[in-house]
Amino acid sequence: MFRNLFVGACVCLLFASEASATPYAGEFLATGIGARPLGLGGAYVALVDDASATYWNPAALARTNMREVMYMHSERFGDLVNYDSGALVFRSRESSSGSRSAFGLGFVMVSIPGIRFHTTDPDLLQQIESGSDGDFDTLDPTQGNGRLDPGERLNLDLLNANAREVTDRQLGVFLSYGRSRVFMDNLSVGGSAKFVRKAVDDFSAWGLGLDLAAIWQIRPEWAVGLNLQDATTTFLDWKNTPTEEREYITPTAKLGTAYTRQIEAISGSLTAVVDLDLRFEDEEGGSFGIGSGAGDVRAGIEYWYRETLAFRVGSERLGGDENPFTAGAGIRIKRFSFDYAYRNHSDLDDVHRLSGGVLF
After folding, report:
1. How do residues 327-342 score in pLDDT, each as one tens digit?
2. Which of 108, 129, 177, 244 has the maximal Cβ count within 10 Å?
3. What does residue 127 show for φ and ψ, rounded to 5 degrees?
4. Global pTM?
């Protein structure tokens, strides 16, 4: 039966990948929830055991024993981009057969304030934009058409005086479910219904998608996870746009493994994680190419001292043209947890992320 489930998921990917993809339509969803996984280079699909499972692997919701809420905030690229994410997982339920199940909610939101939108009033445009002869007083067909044609000049004072500032907001909401002991005792499966909204000024879009996931606990210290994000291709329907009315977010298959070993000599545990991300669209800069798609190899190492203090290092793209280095730390105090993550950037400002969670 598990084989039939896997084949069915692959068929979904096959048909979904034939839709016309819109490059980077879902890029704002790529960062994820929580600072802990980001300190590990984003290799978290088989290790996740907290509320962020709504994003990383909803099958892991069955691992939770208590309600948990978590939140993360970061500012990127010189404070130009605000990134917020969070999740809530409800207490899991155990059936008479011994299987556990849980629901969760998660969100990812990116906002970019201070974007300047200039006027589209044709009378004002004729005063702002000259004709191709550079003269504002002599009208010609190119004057005030909203494009800077050769030879034209701009009245920058008037242009700025009639501009307004807007905020670009992109939001993804996950309604997730996970269940353990499906088909076999050490297999958990789950999924997330994904609701997406984008808006900037009067332009807006709504979309729906579906993630499918599984975790196979091979041994207590070794797990393999799979998350088929946007498995049926997430669509975005736009309003008030003069160009594309619909965008598509193509599927991404996240396959990962996590191995943990308790070591008395260091009074704690070491965990090694590796994820393979396969994106079904043509994209530059990946670790490798595969047909018309691309792939990334993510990896990280985490050390926990007496299950209280953690240190992490990782890489988001092993073997790629750019190999972003990540690092982080975490602390658990009773029912509270705090995590920090760092990511370097070769061209822009480095990124710092901080998240916190509480069990209740």
Report:
1. 999 999 999 999 999 9
2. 108
3. -85, -25
4. 0.83
